[in-house]
Specification:
The chain is built from nine helices and nine strands. It is of the alpha/beta class. Strand 6 and strand 7 form a beta hairpin. The longest helix is centred in the C-terminal third of the chain and has 16 residues.
Length: about 250
């Protein structure tokens, strides 16, 4: 149980994608302790789908939210039920390379770090990789505030105790919770590693909320306000310009 891993998958009515996500976990070369599927859509079809999946070594749990709480809160609910020492998050429309868990657990153990990211492969049909994105190797507040280069949730692997110390995902910055976690972990001086190998497949599709500036805008503003007093005058100007661009193009 020393290296036991809990995999948390929030889902919202995307059963076709979800089954691929779960299969990519089941097919890992490093078998996790459990998979926790947190249903934020409260769908009978999703519950039925998850209940049919069986594995001799992996416990598979279906958790039903009381309402549409959003992905960050769904992940936090999964964390509170997780039994593993480590947490691995996977969005329901993404998948992992079969060596993902094996390589991150080896890296985190060998380098004595608390969390780890890997490079990601952007894909539209899961057959052809369109772009490789390498996450930030070094933390730089101004960069992470303005942009998101490869810091997602599906490529985050972290010690559960450390994750709980920062209070989990901030549900007030839903669209930027991935970047916010990176900032919060760094503020407490927890060390991380980056594996420059695309072990996570980030599916691009039309129904992604990030395709809509109208949806992105409130989240960018919330994220900006959270760190308002920690930002230099020059960075304030850059953030305001970003907000104006989103507003004009929503």
């Amino acid at each position: 149980m020393e290296n036991s891993i809990s995999v948390i998958i929030p889902t919202h009515g995307r059963d076709d994608y979800l089954i691929e996500a779960i299969e990519s976990v089941i097919n890992q070369n490093e078998i996790p302790l459990e998979i926790l599927v947190v249903d934020d859509f409260i769908s009978k079809s999703t519950e039925k789908l998850v209940s049919k999946i069986e594995h001799s070594k992996i416990r598979i749990h279906y958790l039903k939210n009381s309402g549409n709480l959003g992905a960050p809160q769904s992940r936090n609910i999964g964390v509170n039920k997780a039994k593993g020492r480590y947490l691995a998050f996977l969005d329901d429309d993404d998948t992992w390379h079969k060596n993902y868990l094996k390589k991150v657990i080896e890296t985190i153990s060998k380098q004595k770090v608390s969390y780890c990211y890997t490079s990601i492969a952007e894909t539209f049909d899961m057959k052809k990789i369109d772009k490789i994105v390498n996450p930030y190797i070094e933390f730089e507040f101004s960069k992470i505030l303005l942009f998101n280069q490869g810091i997602l949730v599906s490529n985050l692997f972290v010690e559960k105790d450390v994750f709980k110390l920062i209070g989990g995902f901030d549900t007030n910055v839903k669209g930027s919770c991935d970047k916010d976690i990176f900032i919060q972990l760094n503020k407490l001086n927890y060390k991380h590693s980056v594996i420059l190998e695309p072990l996570v497949y980030w599916r691009k599709h039309n129904s992604q909320w990030s395709n809509s500036n109208r949806r992105i805008l409130p989240n960018v503003i919330s994220f900006y306000m959270k760190y308002f007093w920690q930002i230099s005058p020059n960075l304030h100007i850059k953030m305001l310009k970003k907000i104006i661009r989103l507003f004009l193009n929503k």
